[in-house]
Amino acid sequence: MIPKVVEKRNMKNKLKTIGVLIIVVLGVIYIVMSIHRSSPEKTPAEAPILPHVPARIYGQIEPEGGNVYVTASNTRQIIAIHVAEGDSVTVGQKLCTLENSVEKAQVALDSAKVELAKKAWDMSKDDFERNAILYDSASISEYDYTHAKLKAEFDSLNLMAARKNLRLSQAKLNQLDLKSPIDGLVYKFDIRLGESLPEGDNSFILIGKSDLWARLYVESFWIERINIGEKYVIKDSETEEVLGTGTVVSKSPYLGGKIFKTNDPYERFDIKYQEIILRFRSEKKSIPIGLSVVAEIQEKPRR
């Protein structure tokens, strides 16, 4: 009697266990099938047709002809400012003057030496001319004549040396007047009266022509699509705001790296680039020099 009851109880427990396992298996199968149905079917991506893919070409806005930097040959304090940002300037026009008291004193000293040397030469020249007449008439000895001649030659050479020293000191003084090397606009003039301008630092004064261009860098696999005469829409690389249009006017004959970086996530630095220049027509009144831009093809040139 007791064994039969135990046997029935064990049978019930086995059936319960089997039922639980069946339910768990069915649940797992349902979950897997649900996930599979909700996931999109994966298909291999098709390779893009390169001529139909939009090209994005990155670069910067520059004055036509490139940036022209003005630097100091020596670190000096600024004692005079002659122009401001936005001014038009001509070749040789003064931009600012650096501290020059020592150079001015040297020019004054060398000028005085030139005057003294000139007076000495005038006197020795007159003396030689008189002695030459006397020597021709045998009124003085050859020694006196030779002495007067050598003295005049010495004073002449001394005057030449004094004038050369004066020109050198004047050149050093002129170097402290920073001047514009071209006709153009003052795009950057970040200096103040009384501050020091560091030697060779090109981050303070920038001059360029009034017309602008865009210097862009073309990824190597786009080179065949870029041709002289093509027109592009030029946008701010960060805001995508349209700035104007540009026409390709030149292409570099070599490939190289890019010298700047933008915030665009699609920009690449692991390939070679060709440099191209676009003549820029702005739709804005003011475009800052050095602005990072991106160009997109607008139209093909007519054949």
What does this structure look like?
With 303 residues, this protein is α+β, with helices and mostly antiparallel strands. The protein has 3 domains: 1-39; 57-66 and 209-299, Efflux pump adaptor protein, beta barrel domain (Elongation Factor Tu (Ef-tu), domain 3, Beta Barrel), CATH 2.40.30.170; 70-179. The protein contains 3 helices and 14 strands. The protein has helices at residues 2-38, 101-136, 142-174; strands at residues 57-63, 68-69, 76-81, 88-89, 94-98, 177-179, 184-189, 196-197, 205-208, 212-219, 231-236, 242-256, 273-282, 292-299. It has a 6-stranded antiparallel barrel with strand order 1-10-13-12-11-14. Strands 2-9-7-4 form a 4-stranded antiparallel β-sheet, with no helix packed on it. The longest helix is centred in the first third of the chain and has 37 residues, at 2-38. The mean pLDDT is 84.
Low-confidence stretches: none
Count of alpha/pi helices: 3
The structure class reads alpha+beta
SSE string, helix = H, strand = E? HEEEEEHHEEEEEEEEE
Q: Overall pLDDT, averaged?
A: 84
Task: Count the E strands.
Answer: 14
Which strand order spans the largest sheet, edge to edge or round the barrel?
A: 1-10-13-12-11-14
User: What does the largest sheet look like?
Assistant: 6 strands, antiparallel, barrel
Number of domains: 3
Report the sheet-strand fraction.
25-35%
Shape: elongated
Binned, the helix content reads 25-40%
- Termini separation comes to 108 Å
- C-alpha-based Rg, rounded: 42 Å
